[in-house]
Design a protein that fits this description.
Elements: H1 2-9, H2 18-25, H3 34-44, H4 57-63, H5 68-83, H6 86-109, H7 113-119, E1 124-129, E2 132-137, E3 146-150, E4 158-170, H8 172-175, E5 181-182, E6 200-201, E7 206-218, H9 224-233, H10 240-269, H11 274-287, H12 293-309, E8 313-315, H13 320-326, E9 329-332, H14 334-338, E10 344-349, H15 357-369, H16 376-383, E11 392-398, E12 406-413, E13 421-428, H17 429-433, E14 436-440, E15 446-448, H18 451-466, E16 470-479, E17 493-502, H19 509-518, E18 522-526, H20 531-540, E19 548-550, H21 551-554, H22 559-566, E20 571-573, H23 577-589, E21 594-597, H24 604-609, E22 612-616, H25 621-626, E23 629-631, H26 637-677, H27 685-696, H28 720-756
Helix pairs in contact: 4-6, 5-6, 5-10, 5-11, 6-12, 7-9, 10-11, 11-26, 11-27, 12-26, 13-26, 15-16, 22-23, 26-28
Amino acid sequence: MLNSIAKQASGAFWSRTVPELFVELESSASGISSAVASERLARYGANRLEAASVVRPLRLFLRQFKSPLVLILIFAALVSLFTGALVDAGIVLGIILASASLSFWQEYHAGNAIEQLRLRVTLRIEVLRGGHPCTLSVEEIVPGDIVVLAAGSLIPADGILLEADDFFVNEAVLTGETFPVEKKPGVTPADSTLPQRTNCVFMGSNVRSGMARMLVVHTGKNTVYGNIAERLKLRPIETDFERGIRRFGTLLTQVMMLLVLLVFAVNVFLEKPPIDSLLFAVALAVGIAPELLPAILSMTLSKGAMHMAKRGVIVRRLSALENFGSMDVLCTDKTGTLTQGVVQLDGALDTCGNPSESVLLDACLNAHFQSGLPNPLDEAIAAKAQPDIRVYQKTEEIPYDFIRKRLSIAVKNTEHSDADFRLITKGAFSSVLEVCNRVLEPDGTVGALDNARRTALEVLFEGYSAKGFRVLGLAVRDVAPKPEYTAADESDMTFTGFLLFFDPPKEDADEAIADLKRLGVSLKIITGDNRQVALHVAEAVGLEVAGVLTGAEMQHINDDALWQMASRTTIFAEVDPDQKERIVTALQKAGHVVGYLGDGINDAPALHAADVGISVDSAVDVAKETADFVLLEKTLDVLRQGILQGRSTFANTLKYVFTTTSANFGNMLSMAGLSVMVLFLPLLPKQILLNNFMSDFPAMTIANDAVDPEFVEKPRRWNVRMIRNFMVVFGLISSVFDYITFGVLLWWLHVSETTFRPRGLSSRCLPN
């Protein structure tokens, strides 16, 4: 029965009525009994996010050897051991172990992301069990429980509201929305995005104000929060750099296989010893491998990481540094990254949109004297340069409620012997406007609020909203002193102006975007905020917008269509964490190397999926643990520096690859040809391997080589076809020169023998 309950309630529960959910969850308004709760706890498990399955250190260490290139080098070391080249084998194995140990330490150190996530939800909460309130650990909550929520509560599970009173929830951790969201009972469409599910509350969010009761539907890993944690346990998607290394290793493997078969077959056909021929062919094939590539990578990446650390960037995964240079798309969550993540009062304007000191004064009086719970809007007003309000005294308050959406404060001016009393009302624009019948003009006159004047105010409001501002209205009324004021006193008021709130962009955001554009990196905003706010932020930071796509629109777009649209879209608004990850994946499928900059738990899946995950020092722990890079400085200029460093590192890596593969291929091709031309094997296998290793050793200086400016002007990526063509063309040229040199040497020896042979001696008498 419990399995059927879980299955029934696992769908879009926000689209069903409370009675339907009571039936499906076998619960009621008084909750479930303790016996039923114990049974469900045993069946569903504790309401917590399980720690990530522990990866044994040995298994984690062995994962570092999965690259085809590393396997080739291990094979080369084994061949060296078998042929007696012990020093060569020891050096190659030492390089491999050192590189693997460095990567192992980086990954092992970053393995506590899920544990950090789990620790965020340990608390106690008030629950109704059998109609009786009791306080339980959040881990004991099960589907069907009735939970009582109040201001300051951390919501312990996903569920639907049964009742709510002035109930506002901060969901920034999940959606990125700066302002608290009003929640109330009801039904929302099945295809609603997470921010649109106003009848639901979710684990990890917290109550800003009011009281409510919720019916628990999902707990633990079945919650939205838990789904994010589960995905962080999965193996990260193969990044562009890892894909390039794999393809390069595959190319070397194919060349080696072909060379072994060809050289061995030809030498056996010429009746040379089969065992010696096989060892010679294998040594030639192994000689193509760039044995010092792991060392070069470790040196260049470590140098890059130290260089970035000096500029306030922690590199948590070394291989991601190469991806930083290849990145051509950077996605960012607006709040806290492009913006400061703090609501500010952007303007106190009169009824014609001009700055007004009197509007600011009334707003400060209303915010200062209100006695309800603190909220970010009043805090933003208080943070503004304050006018002198010491001469005013509060006499009464009409508290805010979600039906009126207004807050009124009655004040008197104590400087006047004949004290005047005023009622100052602040709230949602439409709610304030509906209690007004007059309007204060900029010249100080009061006029009637007729249809024409009302329309003009609404046009101003819509214009401010379209620019991404949160707009409140302000109204006043002279009142007579009395012991108590009620909502009925909010009538016949005079509309005085607007309050505009905005989450401002960071000071260096526009410069960072311009720098990224010059470096060939396009910026895309992915946010849970509404499209108008996102558009305004884009305008404020100078970002050119090519297209806007909302989360609701994405739900009706299949993956194939999204792959096509993602590259042409600049702003993705009103999206949930799942959709952020889907956008990153779509961009990768479209051929882009994607970076993601975010700071909330809602960004963790996208950070996990991106080729380059970037967070900031003020981010939640899970975002920092999931990211490849953590910015310690507030300035976004470090992104530009990181990209340049990544491209320099990648350039030096490619220098080594091009140089060694072409030289090694040419040398091995020359010896393969000589083995056919002479009656003996030109070199012993251990001589081939030692020669290859010694010729590669000077290339270690490439790690500190300077990079031409034109190489870092645009993103660079692994191009295995170019490497193959370069290797073949220059290898052939090198081998041709070797053959010419060998021919000249033979001719010179022949001439020397004929010209300088002592008289009376035959060639048979010459020493061998």
